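Reading a protein record of the kind used here takes little practice once its layout is understood. The reader may check this reading against the record printed directly beneath this paragraph.
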Amino acid sequence: MTQEGDQPDQFTASQREGLEARRLDQERTLAAMHRLETALESAAPRREGTWRDEVMAALNVLGEASTEEADNAARPGSLLSDIAHNQPRLRNRVRGIRTQYRQLRERIAELERELHQSEEAPPDFADLRQRLAWILTALRHVRARESDLLYEAYYDAFRRDLAEDAG
């Protein structure tokens, strides 16, 4: 955002690029989340193999999207990096969000491995639905926390609501 005491009245070009990159990352991840939800909602009894294949494909897309989003957010020019650098009081929250994203990516990778290992046995689709629903809920939670942090940082830097500038 800005250095403390420095009060420009708008984002820098770099910050605008960061906002756009974040928006694109979030759209890609949200589309992957919807794809996984659709796969999880499909009928599983008597078509366990097809169901598992659809879930595995959707989970793979979500894993790739969330990894790319996290990699982009970790770059030195990202909005989270900008906040951590320029607003020291928010550094721990940035670190916490990054940690939560990392933990979710690890859970996604674990479930991908588990699904690949159990291809011979029919999956416990009720259990998998529950565990993947937890991941989707946790992902929504951390995305909301990140949005809150970005809005708070924006307000602190510019002393006005982000929605006012969008309009």
